[in-house]
Every structure is written in structure tokens, then in C-alpha cells.
Design a protein that fits this description.
The structure is a homodimer. Chain A is an alpha/beta fold. The first copy, chain A, has helices at 42-45, 51-58, 69-75, 87-93, 114-126, 140-151, 162-167, 169-177, 191-199, 207-219, 233-253, 268-284, 300-303, 346-353, 364-378, 384-403, 421-428, 439-446, 454-458, and strands at 5-6, 16-18, 64-66, 83-85, 98-103, 131-136, 155-161, 181-185, 224-226, 259-263, 289-295, 305-310, 319-324, 358-362, 408-413. In chain A, the strands form 4 sheets. A 7-stranded mixed sheet of chain A has the order 1-4-5-15-10-11-14, with helices on both faces. Chain A has a 4-stranded parallel sheet with strand order 8-7-6-9, sandwiched between helices. The relative contact order of chain A is 0.15.
């Protein structure tokens, strides 16, 4: 019988995360203090984040960072996740490609997010914090953070993007099941939220806005740290367990990916699966193609500008060197709430500049069409976010078929869509639409980005 | 690092299902034709079910029935499921017991139901059917059947218990995602449904009612077979993959269960995990205790009567020898929709008479309290049905702690509760209640059961 699932033994689960910064030929530009425009150090970051993550964030020296024993202990509750050869999906497509997916949907809380929630809460606990706060879009990160906080006896407060909260009411129930406090963002509980509501009472919220609120809470609450589910370097670092496992599992399958694909919001799931393979492009001359699948309606990778910009709407974060649509960009209300973010992480942005990877834009309807094909073949209903990766995989599979090639495609199934059934219902009923955006709209939105001469800083 | 998850290689997945009927010292009494009161043979059943399942239903000779190669091929998309040593749950309870759970919640569609949906649809396809129909309560079975039907290119029509459909709207969306037609039951699309609605326009539905409707559709539609997700012998037979895997996995863990626990609706998940272990009680003198956890509000195992009764409300099924509360019993609207059924399967009923197992009654609030403890420890939100097994496991763990024993407890986590978040929300808000039932209510409901002298039939 042909083998479909490749699973590692507990003792094969990675002992170290992979820090691609150490191997990058051009390091990411430094984050800047918005007041002084001076590069930040770990001490600056640790007013918001725990110390260890602040250190990891700026570490450009160590390619391998040890996973604390207690974090590995928690990982082994659900890892390794299966690497699956998607024979049924291949047959549904009639493709000559070999398609593998790394299934992070069977994780606690149904997505990859738990991989970083656990270490972030672990470090906070170690450093004497009692509270954590965060933002969440679709709620995948908020749910994971709520559970991880409970594991370490921390109180969690989550700002959830209002539109996503309304679209996916079950997710806030999940967070409350784990004892978290959940606020729809923009909320009246912070100055940032109040300002936004005052300007625009019907603001649907965005990750940028929710981040502003959570940071404000963290900086005004004793022993409370802010945690982030994507964008930052240390989050992608934690997620590299995905790719490191997948590397061993692909070896078990006797293949190596020609193409690695993941959906793209802030870059943590993408970096998680891609970076461990990308190191072989950087160091060993491999020529794997890396594709980040973003929504057509939020095209920062393909149509954004590389600039120093804020990570949040209100401008509380450091200035980050990123491909951005402008920090006050208001993404369309697509169901892939986790992809509604205006910028790309610093590492990713540099890797795009250096041509190690590229983005593709997926219209909402194409993502759901792809998800339906996948679900009916493999029996797993994908998160709308993951649907973007599947759509990109289908495009690549079609190309391979046309060229008659047995191309090996690996994508990350970052989560399941069981909490997103209203979105599927809308799709089936023909009520979903695509949202595109014009160049002039993008131009206009970029006007608010602080202007720097990047070349100047690179010197 | 202590090992938590035990997973089999693909070539260790069972090649045969275990048919406990062949080993039972006292065989189940035969199902009877309601008109003639004569025992039924496989031909009689095959008007409703596919031929192979009809044969399996009455097979008291073969202890091992081969799993068709094509079914095993589908099983290996998601099996083996993990056997997990629940250290975090043990720590939350402060128990001396060793608690293991077999995690069927990571299956496609989130429950054990797929294990029987696949072979049932496979056999229908093999025998030339084009359509399948069924009933579903919470929707776990309907979802699994919809996907399995799609895998084999069959059209599926599902009657979902109306109250469950309202409580869990996402489940019908899942079924529609897989292309199934979904009707709330009682519906106006069958005579049985119309009769019930006429008598009681606000009838919330029950599995018994939905079964009547599905059978009526199957018997009035060409090339359409009825499929059932529990109660019958062949369904429990297919589910024995769970226990057979668990047996090997417990061996990997170096332990053998003192107690095996599962929630109980019709008996398929219970039989699935219990029968393979029970064979060692029957044949090898093991003394494992088997506990079926049923809702306090639907106590057929502990307070029902052993009688010949119909499997459905309208009286379309054969007469089955079962512990029953009466085929027109209206269970309270608890959230564990899959446990709202009036009777126990034939095999289970005989095993209870012969003291190989017993039932326990779990109040709704106790089941949710148990689920909350489990969720916060293990990160998996259990289906409300599975919450009953967890509550029973907690009771047993407490006993073990009081006795200072390292008792080994194994339970089946039959499914996750991500589609049941409204139930958790109600529980957290204090809006849930217990439902008990008086002896005289049970007595009264049993009056409609056809009266036979069981002793007479046993001769």
C-alpha cells in the first residue's frame, strides 16, 4: 500500500529552532525607534515583549536556538504533525505533480499558532510576568494564546478584529473556554481604540488596529507582556519546527520539494515551513522555489512598497523595514481574517528583495474553489487562510502537468476551517465576491508612511 | 522525555475488524420481522442495507472479518489515530491513575464516525447503488457520511435531528460542503415526518424519528441504501479499528487498561474501543472493567428495560432485542445530540445481561465540567458526547486516587467540540441545566413497546 502519512517519533522532534537571520547574506535592516530613528536593541523591545523573545528578535548570529526542554515537552503533546502525500487531491486535479502537505490543522486549537504561543507564554512565566495580551484576526492566534496562557497560569486578554469576531463567533467562545478575556477591536477600552472609533464608528477593525490596542494595554499594565502571533522574527523562528519536521519527513518520503508554498499574513506560517528548506538554497545551492500566497485584496508582497513603516495602525510599534501597503491600510472584509495585514515581516521583506522568494495574489473566490476541491478529496476543510496556499499549489500543479513534469510541491495546511463554516456557506450560496484594489488606491495609502532614505540607512 | 503519543506505522494498521459476536458465550437474540415475529436473515436486511453489511450484521461465526484493501487505503489517510497518555489531564486531577485516551478527534470531520462511513459507502458502490441516505443527530455521522459518499461518487441525503441542526448550524454547512442534501427532521418530505409534525408541530426531533425518515426515503428510492452510524452490529464492527489500534498502542506504552470507558449513544464508539479488549476478558481471563457513559436524561443502559423494540420512532425497523426506554422516547434537549437515542445495540444489550460491561449516568453539567478540565489541560475541546466519557474517567480516577492505586484508565475521545461552541458558551454563562427523568415517566414510555416473552424466544 502506498504510504501517505509520514510521522516522526517523539525523539526525532527538533531540539532547536532554525534562525535564518544568521545565514542570510544580507541581514534585515534594523527596526528603528520612531522618535530618534536610531536602531533598537533588545532592551528597547523588552518594554513590550519578554526578554528572551526580544533577544531572539535581533539575533543575527546563532543559526540554531535551543528549544527549552519544557517547551519541547509541550510540543510533544501534539507534534510531530503529519506530512501527507495528497494522493486523493492529486487525483482530483489530474496532475503529474507530487503534492505533499504539512498538516498543522490537527494541532490543539486547529492551527500552527500554538507552536509560538507555547514558547512566548513559557518565557513570560519564566521572567515573572502574570499577564499576557495580544491581538487576533480570525482568532486562530488568540485561541492558541489563550490555551498556552492557561497552561502556564497566565491571565490572557485578547483584542479580536471586530469583523472577524462577527464572522466567526465560535472563536471567541473558544478563547473564553480557556479563560481569556476577549474584546472586539476597535474597542472603547484603549485610547487607540477610542480614537479610531471616534474617527470611524463603523471601523471593521484590522490586525493593525488590534495590535495598537494590545500594545497599549501591555505598556499600561504591570507584569503584562504583549505577544504577537506573526510578523516578527522570533515568531517565525518558533514556527520553524514545522519546516524542520517536514524536512525529515520529506526524506522519509524519498523526495525533496521543488516548490514550497504557504499562505501569507505576517509570515510566521510561511517562514515556519520555508526557512529550513531555504537554508539549502542559501548554503547548499538547492533551487527550490518559495511562494507566499497573499490575498488579492491585501497585496503587500507583490504591490506594496519596501519602506520603514509601523506594524500597527496607531503607530505604537517600532518602525520596521517591510513591504507595506501603509500602516493604516483597511483590508477588504475577506474571510481569511489572518491575512488581513498591511505589512510583511522584516526577514521576509529582505528575502524578497534578494529574490529568495516571491508572492502571488489569490482572489477570494479562487481560494474557496481550491479549498472545496481539497476538502472533498482529503476530508479536511481548510481554513480560508490555508485556501490561499492550496490555490497557489493548484496553479503550480497545473503548470507541472502542462510541462509534463513530476514536480514535488509542498504546502503548509496552516489550519482547519471548521470555525469558518459561515464562509463556506456563503461561498456555496454564491454570496462571496472578489475584492481588488487599484494602483492609485495603494499609492494614496502609502502617503502616510514615514519617509526615509533606505539607502542611507543601509550604509 | 516522557512519551505521550503512541502512533502506529501504516503497515501496523489492522487488516481485519474484530467481530465479537463470534466469541460471545451467549449470542445476541435475533432481530425479528415485526409482522411475522420470525427471525430475520441477511436477505431481509438487504432491502434496506447493502448486502455485505447485512451479512456482517448477523455473522456469529467469523471473529475476524477482512477490511477490504480499498477501505484500508482510505483508512491510511488518517489512521492510526494517536493514543495519548494524558499527563496534563492527570496533573489537573491530581490523580494516581494513568489515563490514556484514543484520539479520534483528529479524523476527517472530527470524529470516529468516518471509520464506518467509508466501508458502508464502499460496499454500496461495489453493489451498484448510486444513492445513500441516513439520519444524524449532532451531525458527526452525517458529516462523515457526506464525505465518504463524495469519495465514492454517491449522492447523499441526510435527515438531521431538528434541534441539533439549530444548536449546531455549522454541521449542516459541513455536509453541504461535501455536496449532501440536508433536511431537518421531522420534515415534510416523508410520510413518517409528516405524521409526527401533524401530531406535534414543535417536535424537536430525535434520532428515532430521523431514522424513520431516512429508511422511508431508502425504501422508496431506486438504488438507494440506508446507512446507519451506530446501534447496529456491523457499525460497531467497523469501529473496532479503534480498539485494535489501541491494543497495540497500549503495548507500546507498556500498560494494559484496567478500565475502558466510552460515551454511549447507540454503541458504535463504545464497541469500537471496548470489544477488542473485551475479547481478552471473554477468552483470556482478563478482568478489565468496561463502562459505557450515557446521559442522565437518556438512561437506557441503567434504567431501561430489555425488550424487543423498534430502532426508530415510526416502527419501520426490524424488532431488535435491546435495552430501551421505548422507541417513541423523547430525550431532553441536551447538547450531546449523538447520545439522544432510546435504545442500545443488540450486542451491547446481551453483554450487559451477561455482566461484561455496565453503564453509568452522567448529568449534563458534570459532562461539561469534565470537558472544561480536559480542554484546559490537553488543549482539545471535546465533543459534548465525549464529555460523558471524560466525566466517567474522572470518577474512576478519583476512586483510584482514594484507593491509592495506579489504575490504568483508557477512554475514547470520540470527537472534538469545535462545532459545539454554543454549548460551551451556554455552559460558561451558566445557562445549561441537568435533565433527570422519573421512574414513572420511564415506565409510562415503555408501555408502547411491543410485548414478547423473551424467555420464549430464547428457547
Amino acid at each position: 500500500m502506498r504510504q501517505k502519512r509520514f510521522i516522526l517519533q517523539e525523539n526525532e522532534i527538533p531540539t532547536h529552532w532554525y534562525n535564518i537571520q544568521a545565514d542570510m547574506p544580507n541581514k534585515p535592516l534594523p527596526p528603528l525607534n520612531p522618535a530618534t530613528h536610531k536602531p533598537l536593541d533588545a532592551d528597547d523591545l523588552s518594554h513590550i515583549f519578554n526578554k528572551e523573545c526580544s533577544k531572539q528578535e535581533l539575533d543575527i548570529e546563532h543559526a540554531w536556538i535551543e528549544i527549552p526542554e519544557e517547551v519541547r515537552e509541550k510540543y510533544t503533546y501534539y507534534r510531530s504533525t503529519p506530512l501527507v502525500r495528497a494522493y486523493a487531491f492529486e487525483e482530483a486535479l489530474g496532475t503529474s505533480a507530487h503534492i505533499y502537505f504539512k498538516n498543522e490543522s490537527t494541532n490543539p486549537l486547529g492551527s500552527h499558532k500554538i507552536n509560538s504561543a507555547i514558547p512566548q507564554c513559557y518565557y513570560c512565566k519564566q521572567e515573572g510576568d502574570t499577564n499576557v495580551t495580544t491581538e487576533t484576526g480570525a482568532g486562530q492566534w488568540g485561541a492558541a494564546l489563550s490555551y498556552a496562557a492557561k497552561l502556564y497560569g497566565l491571565e490572557a486578554a485578547v483584542y479580536q478584529v471586530k469583523i472577524s469576531m462577527q464572522q466567526k463567533p465560535y472563536r471567541s467562545a473558544i478563547m473564553r473556554t480557556f479563560g481569556a478575556t476577549v474584546e472586539g477591536s476597535p474597542s472603547m477600552s484603549t485610547r487607540a481604540g477610542k480614537d479610531i472609533i471616534t474617527r470611524d464608528p463603523n471601523h471593521p477593525g484590522s490586525l493593525g488596529t488590534a495590535i495598537s490596542e494590545a500594545i497599549e494595554l501591555a505598556t499600561t499594565t504591570p507584569n503584562c507582556k504583549y505577544t504577537l502571533g506573526s510578523v516578527l522574527n522570533h515568531v517565525a523562528l518558533h514556527q520553524t519546527v514545522i519546516g524542520l519536521e517536514a524536512e525529515k519527513q520529506m526524506e522519509m518520503a524519498g523526495e525533496y520539494p521543488d516548490t514550497v508554498i504557504a499562505c501569507f499574513g505576517g509570515g510566521s506560517n510561511f517562514g515556519g515551513i520555508a526557512f529550513p528548506f531555504m537554508r539549502h538554497n542559501i548554503k547548499d545551492g538547492k533551487r527550490t522555489e518559495f511562494i507566499a500566497a497573499e490575498p488579492e485584496s491585501c497585496p503587500k508582497l507583490t504591490r506594496g512598497k519596501f519602506e520603514y513603516d509601523f506594524g500597527d495602525e496607531a503607530g505604537y510599534t517600532p518602525l520596521l523595514p517591510m513591504f507595506t501597503l501603509g500602516h493604516d491600510f483597511k483590508p477588504a472584509n475577506i474571510h481569511a481574517g489572518g491575512l488581513r495585514y498591511h505589512g510583511a515581516g522584516m526577514i521576509i521583506s529582505q528575502l524578497i528583495r534578494d529574490n529568495y522568494m516571491h508572492g502571488v495574489d489569490i482572489p477570494q473566490l479562487e481560494s474557496f474553489e481550491a479549498s472545496m476541491i481539497f476538502a472533498r478529496a482529503e476530508g479536511i476543510i481548510p481554513a480560508p487562510e490555508s485556501g490561499h496556499a492550496i490555490a497557489a499549489a493548484i496553479r503550480e500543479a497545473k503548470k507541472a502537468t502542462e510541462e509534463g513534469k513530476e514536480k514535488v510541491i509542498l504546502f503548509c495546511l496552516s489550519g482547519h476551517g471548521l470555525i469558518d463554516m459561515t464562509a463556506y456557506e456563503s461561498y456555496i450560496n454564491g454570496d462571496l465576491q472578489n475584492y481588488s484594489i487599484t494602483d492609485s488606491e495603494i499609492e494614496k495609502n502609502l502617503e502616510d508612511v514615514p519617509q526615509f532614505d533606505i539607502n542611507e540607512i543601509e550604509k
